[in-house]
Amino acid sequence: MIPSWHERAKCAGDLAFIERVEAVADNKRRAAARAACAGCPVLTECAVEGLETSAYAVVRAGVWLRANGQRTRTADRHELVAIVASARARAVDRPDRPLSVSA
Q1: According to the model, what pLDDT value does residue 44 have?
Q2: Which of the four, 10, 22, 83, 89, has the lowest number of CB atoms within 10 Å?
Q3: Distance of alpha carbon 70 from alpha carbon 42, whole angstroms
Q4: Which segments within 1-103 are labelled E, that is strand?
Q5: CB–CB of 60/47 below 8 Å?
């Protein structure tokens, strides 16, 4: 079952999304991923999914999850954790807009 938040993602229905990021040179891929997801309304949900799965060579929440080595995958996961932590901090600051991560 596909989580309902997927439908609200900036990349929803964009079948060429990952291909555009992959087409960029390795040293610019992380910036391309970040730019592709900038302003996405479900960035936090996407980051949580990235943390809950073992997917690699994909973009989650503007983070290119690399396949090459444990050290890089750990660094990528730290970026996702930071995104979720930031969203939770904002939710504490704004109790009228609670963080919702739902399926």
Answers
A1: 94
A2: 89
A3: 27
A4: 58-60, 63-65
A5: yes
